[in-house]
Write a structure and sequence with these properties.
The structure is a single chain. The chain has 331 residues and is α/β, with parallel strands linked by helices. The protein has a seven-stranded mixed sheet, covered by helices on one side. It starts with a strand and ends in a 5-residue tail after the last helix. The chain is built from seven helices and 17 strands.
Length: 331
Amino acid sequence: MLMRVPYLVSAAALLGGLTSVGGLTSIGGTATEVVVAPAMPSAVTALQRSAAPPAPATQVAPPVEKDSVRFAIIGDTGTGTSSQYEIGAQLTQARQTFPFEFVIMLGDNIYGSERPQDFVNKFEKPYQTLLDAKVPFYAALGNHDDPTQRYYKPFNMNGERYYTFTKGNARFFVLDSNYMDPTQIKWLEEQLSRANDHWKIAYFHHPLYSSGEKHGSEVDLRTQLEPLFMKYGVDVVFAGHEHFYERIKPQNGIYYFIEGGSAKLRKGDIRKGGPLTANGFDTDFTFMLAELGKDAMRFQVLSRNGKPVDAGTLQLAAEPKRAAEDKPASR
Protein backbone atom coordinates (compact mmCIF):
# COMPACT_ATOMS: atom_id res chain seq x y z
CA MET A 1 0.00 0.00 0.00
CA LEU A 2 1.40 3.38 -1.01
CA MET A 3 0.33 6.50 0.86
CA ARG A 4 1.65 9.93 0.01
CA VAL A 5 1.50 13.33 1.66
CA PRO A 6 -1.81 13.62 3.55
CA TYR A 7 -4.57 15.78 2.16
CA LEU A 8 -4.16 19.13 3.79
CA VAL A 9 -7.38 21.03 4.32
CA SER A 10 -10.71 19.67 5.45
CA ALA A 11 -13.71 21.03 3.61
CA ALA A 12 -16.28 18.30 4.20
CA ALA A 13 -18.73 20.70 5.78
CA LEU A 14 -18.30 23.28 3.05
CA LEU A 15 -18.56 21.52 -0.29
CA GLY A 16 -22.17 20.52 0.10
CA GLY A 17 -23.23 24.13 -0.34
CA LEU A 18 -21.13 24.85 -3.39
CA THR A 19 -22.70 25.54 -6.73
CA SER A 20 -21.14 26.09 -10.11
CA VAL A 21 -20.97 29.50 -11.66
CA GLY A 22 -22.77 28.78 -14.71
CA GLY A 23 13.00 28.29 -28.59
CA LEU A 24 11.37 27.78 -26.46
CA THR A 25 12.99 25.09 -24.37
CA SER A 26 14.51 26.55 -21.24
CA ILE A 27 16.18 24.34 -18.67
CA GLY A 28 18.55 25.38 -15.98
CA GLY A 29 19.39 28.01 -13.44
CA THR A 30 18.79 27.83 -9.71
CA ALA A 31 15.46 26.36 -8.73
CA THR A 32 13.24 29.13 -7.42
CA GLU A 33 9.60 28.89 -6.46
CA VAL A 34 7.79 31.81 -8.08
CA VAL A 35 5.22 33.45 -5.83
CA VAL A 36 2.62 35.49 -7.67
CA ALA A 37 0.42 37.93 -5.82
CA PRO A 38 -3.33 37.28 -5.75
CA ALA A 39 -5.14 38.72 -8.72
CA MET A 40 -6.40 42.18 -7.86
CA PRO A 41 -10.00 43.05 -8.78
CA SER A 42 -8.87 45.41 -11.53
CA ALA A 43 -6.66 42.72 -13.08
CA VAL A 44 -9.42 40.16 -12.88
CA THR A 45 -11.86 42.58 -14.46
CA ALA A 46 -9.45 43.29 -17.30
CA LEU A 47 -9.13 39.59 -18.02
CA GLN A 48 -12.84 38.85 -17.81
CA ARG A 49 -14.46 41.89 -19.43
CA SER A 50 -14.21 42.66 -23.09
CA ALA A 51 -16.46 44.49 -25.51
CA ALA A 52 -15.74 41.77 -28.07
CA PRO A 53 -14.57 38.15 -27.84
CA PRO A 54 -10.81 37.75 -27.31
CA ALA A 55 -8.73 37.75 -30.45
CA PRO A 56 -7.70 34.25 -31.56
CA ALA A 57 -4.33 33.11 -30.27
CA THR A 58 -2.35 33.42 -33.48
CA GLN A 59 0.33 30.93 -32.51
CA VAL A 60 -2.10 28.10 -31.75
CA ALA A 61 -2.31 25.44 -34.45
CA PRO A 62 -5.81 24.30 -35.44
CA PRO A 63 -6.88 20.64 -35.32
CA VAL A 64 -5.83 18.42 -38.21
CA GLU A 65 -8.46 15.66 -38.25
CA LYS A 66 -12.21 16.10 -38.52
CA ASP A 67 -13.45 13.68 -35.85
CA SER A 68 -10.53 13.82 -33.43
CA VAL A 69 -10.78 14.07 -29.63
CA ARG A 70 -9.57 17.52 -28.57
CA PHE A 71 -8.81 18.59 -25.02
CA ALA A 72 -6.72 20.91 -22.86
CA ILE A 73 -4.44 19.92 -19.99
CA ILE A 74 -3.68 22.02 -16.90
CA GLY A 75 -2.06 21.16 -13.60
CA ASP A 76 -1.34 22.67 -10.18
CA THR A 77 -3.81 25.42 -10.85
CA GLY A 78 -5.80 26.49 -7.80
CA THR A 79 -3.90 29.54 -6.58
CA GLY A 80 -6.29 32.37 -7.39
CA THR A 81 -3.27 34.40 -8.50
CA SER A 82 -2.85 36.49 -11.63
CA SER A 83 -0.93 33.67 -13.34
CA GLN A 84 -3.98 31.40 -13.09
CA TYR A 85 -6.23 34.08 -14.56
CA GLU A 86 -3.76 34.72 -17.37
CA ILE A 87 -3.63 31.03 -18.30
CA GLY A 88 -7.42 30.99 -18.15
CA ALA A 89 -7.55 33.87 -20.61
CA GLN A 90 -5.10 32.09 -22.94
CA LEU A 91 -7.21 28.94 -22.83
CA THR A 92 -10.23 30.97 -23.88
CA GLN A 93 -8.30 32.50 -26.76
CA ALA A 94 -6.79 29.20 -27.83
CA ARG A 95 -10.21 27.57 -28.02
CA GLN A 96 -11.18 29.89 -30.88
CA THR A 97 -8.50 28.29 -33.05
CA PHE A 98 -8.35 24.88 -31.39
CA PRO A 99 -11.92 24.10 -30.22
CA PHE A 100 -11.16 21.67 -27.41
CA GLU A 101 -14.16 19.84 -25.98
CA PHE A 102 -13.04 19.43 -22.37
CA VAL A 103 -10.21 20.09 -19.89
CA ILE A 104 -8.35 17.61 -17.69
CA MET A 105 -6.89 18.81 -14.37
CA LEU A 106 -3.82 17.05 -12.95
CA GLY A 107 -4.31 17.81 -9.27
CA ASP A 108 -3.64 20.55 -6.73
CA ASN A 109 -6.88 22.05 -7.93
CA ILE A 110 -7.38 24.28 -4.87
CA TYR A 111 -4.44 25.48 -2.79
CA GLY A 112 -4.91 26.64 0.78
CA SER A 113 -8.36 27.10 2.25
CA GLU A 114 -11.32 25.44 0.54
CA ARG A 115 -14.22 27.65 1.51
CA PRO A 116 -17.03 28.19 -0.99
CA GLN A 117 -15.52 31.53 -2.01
CA ASP A 118 -12.18 29.81 -2.64
CA PHE A 119 -13.75 27.54 -5.24
CA VAL A 120 -15.15 30.65 -6.88
CA ASN A 121 -11.88 32.61 -6.86
CA LYS A 122 -9.52 29.68 -7.56
CA PHE A 123 -11.58 27.84 -10.19
CA GLU A 124 -14.85 29.36 -11.33
CA LYS A 125 -13.65 32.88 -12.05
CA PRO A 126 -10.34 32.03 -13.77
CA TYR A 127 -12.17 29.69 -16.18
CA GLN A 128 -15.54 31.43 -16.19
CA THR A 129 -15.74 31.89 -19.96
CA LEU A 130 -15.10 28.19 -20.54
CA LEU A 131 -17.60 27.17 -17.86
CA ASP A 132 -20.20 29.50 -19.35
CA ALA A 133 -19.58 27.77 -22.69
CA LYS A 134 -20.34 24.41 -20.98
CA VAL A 135 -16.78 23.09 -21.36
CA PRO A 136 -16.48 20.29 -18.77
CA PHE A 137 -13.47 19.92 -16.48
CA TYR A 138 -12.37 16.48 -15.18
CA ALA A 139 -10.17 16.66 -12.08
CA ALA A 140 -7.68 14.35 -10.40
CA LEU A 141 -6.75 14.82 -6.74
CA GLY A 142 -3.38 16.26 -5.77
CA ASN A 143 -1.56 16.27 -2.43
CA HIS A 144 -2.88 19.78 -1.68
CA ASP A 145 -6.50 18.79 -2.36
CA ASP A 146 -9.04 17.75 0.21
CA PRO A 147 -10.58 14.47 -0.99
CA THR A 148 -14.04 15.94 -0.51
CA GLN A 149 -13.40 17.87 -3.74
CA ARG A 150 -14.77 14.77 -5.41
CA TYR A 151 -18.26 15.99 -4.45
CA TYR A 152 -17.78 19.37 -6.13
CA LYS A 153 -19.91 19.02 -9.25
CA PRO A 154 -17.82 21.13 -11.69
CA PHE A 155 -14.88 18.73 -11.18
CA ASN A 156 -17.03 15.90 -12.60
CA MET A 157 -15.63 13.27 -10.24
CA ASN A 158 -19.10 12.04 -9.25
CA GLY A 159 -18.04 11.41 -5.68
CA GLU A 160 -15.15 9.09 -6.61
CA ARG A 161 -11.43 9.39 -5.80
CA TYR A 162 -10.66 7.61 -9.06
CA TYR A 163 -12.83 7.07 -12.12
CA THR A 164 -12.92 6.57 -15.87
CA PHE A 165 -14.71 8.29 -18.74
CA THR A 166 -14.79 8.12 -22.52
CA LYS A 167 -14.62 10.75 -25.23
CA GLY A 168 -14.98 9.54 -28.80
CA ASN A 169 -12.55 6.68 -29.37
CA ALA A 170 -10.56 7.42 -26.19
CA ARG A 171 -10.90 6.23 -22.61
CA PHE A 172 -9.41 8.23 -19.75
CA PHE A 173 -8.35 6.66 -16.44
CA VAL A 174 -8.19 9.21 -13.60
CA LEU A 175 -6.29 7.99 -10.54
CA ASP A 176 -5.70 9.17 -6.97
CA SER A 177 -1.93 8.91 -6.63
CA ASN A 178 -2.03 10.15 -3.03
CA TYR A 179 -3.23 6.77 -1.79
CA MET A 180 -2.57 3.92 -4.19
CA ASP A 181 -4.19 1.17 -2.15
CA PRO A 182 -4.88 -2.41 -3.33
CA THR A 183 -8.53 -1.59 -3.95
CA GLN A 184 -7.62 1.12 -6.45
CA ILE A 185 -5.02 -1.11 -8.15
CA LYS A 186 -7.59 -3.89 -8.50
CA TRP A 187 -10.15 -1.46 -9.92
CA LEU A 188 -7.60 -0.11 -12.42
CA GLU A 189 -6.67 -3.55 -13.71
CA GLU A 190 -10.32 -4.52 -14.06
CA GLN A 191 -11.05 -1.34 -16.02
CA LEU A 192 -7.97 -1.66 -18.23
CA SER A 193 -8.58 -5.34 -18.96
CA ARG A 194 -12.05 -4.71 -20.34
CA ALA A 195 -11.23 -1.50 -22.23
CA ASN A 196 -11.06 -1.92 -26.01
CA ASP A 197 -10.88 1.79 -26.81
CA HIS A 198 -8.57 3.02 -29.57
CA TRP A 199 -6.76 5.37 -27.15
CA LYS A 200 -6.05 4.74 -23.46
CA ILE A 201 -4.99 7.81 -21.50
CA ALA A 202 -4.12 7.85 -17.78
CA TYR A 203 -3.65 10.90 -15.62
CA PHE A 204 -2.99 11.65 -11.96
CA HIS A 205 -0.89 13.99 -9.83
CA HIS A 206 2.50 12.43 -9.04
CA PRO A 207 4.80 11.76 -12.05
CA LEU A 208 6.27 8.31 -12.60
CA TYR A 209 9.20 9.94 -14.42
CA SER A 210 10.55 13.42 -13.73
CA SER A 211 13.76 15.42 -14.03
CA GLY A 212 12.74 17.79 -11.26
CA GLU A 213 15.27 18.67 -8.60
CA LYS A 214 12.55 19.28 -6.00
CA HIS A 215 10.66 15.99 -6.31
CA GLY A 216 11.89 13.76 -9.14
CA SER A 217 10.44 10.43 -10.27
CA GLU A 218 7.95 8.60 -8.06
CA VAL A 219 9.67 5.24 -8.37
CA ASP A 220 7.46 3.40 -5.88
CA LEU A 221 4.33 4.52 -7.68
CA ARG A 222 5.91 3.56 -11.00
CA THR A 223 6.48 0.04 -9.67
CA GLN A 224 2.76 -0.28 -9.01
CA LEU A 225 1.34 1.34 -12.13
CA GLU A 226 3.69 0.92 -15.06
CA PRO A 227 3.39 -2.88 -15.34
CA LEU A 228 -0.37 -2.46 -15.76
CA PHE A 229 0.10 0.36 -18.27
CA MET A 230 2.43 -1.83 -20.31
CA LYS A 231 0.29 -4.95 -20.06
CA TYR A 232 -2.92 -3.29 -21.16
CA GLY A 233 -1.59 -0.79 -23.68
CA VAL A 234 -1.90 2.64 -22.05
CA ASP A 235 -0.70 5.11 -24.66
CA VAL A 236 -0.17 8.43 -22.86
CA VAL A 237 0.23 9.42 -19.20
CA PHE A 238 -0.14 12.97 -17.84
CA ALA A 239 0.93 14.11 -14.36
CA GLY A 240 1.48 17.34 -12.44
CA HIS A 241 3.14 17.98 -9.04
CA GLU A 242 6.36 19.39 -10.54
CA HIS A 243 5.86 23.09 -11.18
CA PHE A 244 7.07 23.10 -14.77
CA TYR A 245 6.42 21.44 -18.13
CA GLU A 246 8.37 18.36 -19.21
CA ARG A 247 8.00 15.85 -22.02
CA ILE A 248 9.69 12.61 -21.09
CA LYS A 249 11.48 10.44 -23.62
CA PRO A 250 9.21 7.42 -24.33
CA GLN A 251 9.50 4.82 -21.60
CA ASN A 252 8.55 1.20 -22.38
CA GLY A 253 6.44 2.33 -25.31
CA ILE A 254 4.49 4.92 -23.27
CA TYR A 255 4.48 8.71 -23.69
CA TYR A 256 4.79 10.66 -20.42
CA PHE A 257 4.12 14.37 -19.84
CA ILE A 258 4.33 16.64 -16.80
CA GLU A 259 2.18 19.76 -16.79
CA GLY A 260 2.34 21.23 -13.31
CA GLY A 261 3.06 24.81 -14.29
CA SER A 262 -0.40 26.22 -15.01
CA ALA A 263 -0.43 28.52 -11.95
CA LYS A 264 2.67 27.54 -9.97
CA LEU A 265 6.26 27.76 -11.23
CA ARG A 266 9.58 26.51 -9.89
CA LYS A 267 12.16 28.23 -12.06
CA GLY A 268 15.31 26.35 -12.99
CA ASP A 269 14.14 23.10 -11.38
CA ILE A 270 14.65 20.76 -14.37
CA ARG A 271 18.01 19.01 -14.19
CA LYS A 272 20.31 20.05 -17.00
CA GLY A 273 21.20 17.26 -19.39
CA GLY A 274 19.06 14.69 -17.62
CA PRO A 275 18.52 11.35 -19.38
CA LEU A 276 14.72 11.57 -19.22
CA THR A 277 14.03 14.95 -20.79
CA ALA A 278 12.91 15.16 -24.41
CA ASN A 279 11.87 18.78 -23.88
CA GLY A 280 11.31 20.95 -20.85
CA PHE A 281 10.30 24.47 -19.89
CA ASP A 282 10.68 25.93 -16.41
CA THR A 283 10.74 29.69 -16.94
CA ASP A 284 7.04 30.57 -17.29
CA PHE A 285 3.53 29.21 -16.74
CA THR A 286 2.09 26.84 -19.34
CA PHE A 287 -0.86 24.77 -20.54
CA MET A 288 -1.25 21.99 -23.10
CA LEU A 289 -3.58 21.21 -25.98
CA ALA A 290 -3.94 17.71 -27.43
CA GLU A 291 -5.69 16.08 -30.37
CA LEU A 292 -6.21 12.32 -30.52
CA GLY A 293 -6.55 11.29 -34.15
CA LYS A 294 -6.83 7.99 -35.90
CA ASP A 295 -3.15 7.06 -35.69
CA ALA A 296 -1.40 9.85 -33.77
CA MET A 297 -1.66 12.37 -30.94
CA ARG A 298 -0.77 15.94 -31.84
CA PHE A 299 0.10 18.21 -28.94
CA GLN A 300 1.13 21.78 -28.38
CA VAL A 301 2.26 23.60 -25.26
CA LEU A 302 1.90 27.35 -24.81
CA SER A 303 3.04 29.84 -22.20
CA ARG A 304 0.89 32.46 -20.49
CA ASN A 305 1.76 34.97 -23.20
CA GLY A 306 0.53 32.57 -25.89
CA LYS A 307 3.97 31.67 -27.26
CA PRO A 308 4.71 28.06 -28.30
CA VAL A 309 6.84 26.06 -25.88
CA ASP A 310 6.70 22.59 -27.40
CA ALA A 311 4.74 20.73 -30.09
CA GLY A 312 4.82 17.42 -31.87
CA THR A 313 3.09 14.36 -33.26
CA LEU A 314 3.27 11.03 -31.42
CA GLN A 315 2.33 7.85 -33.22
CA LEU A 316 -0.17 5.46 -31.67
CA ALA A 317 1.62 2.29 -30.62
CA ALA A 318 0.42 -1.17 -31.57
CA GLU A 319 -1.77 -2.91 -29.03
CA PRO A 320 0.13 -5.34 -26.78
CA LYS A 321 -0.77 -8.99 -26.68
CA ARG A 322 -3.30 -9.75 -24.00
CA ALA A 323 -2.77 -12.58 -21.56
CA ALA A 324 -5.53 -14.62 -23.19
CA GLU A 325 -3.74 -14.37 -26.53
CA ASP A 326 -0.57 -15.77 -25.01
CA LYS A 327 -2.19 -18.99 -23.80
CA PRO A 328 -1.47 -22.10 -25.91
CA ALA A 329 -4.38 -23.34 -27.95
CA SER A 330 -6.34 -26.13 -26.29
CA ARG A 331 -6.02 -29.52 -27.88
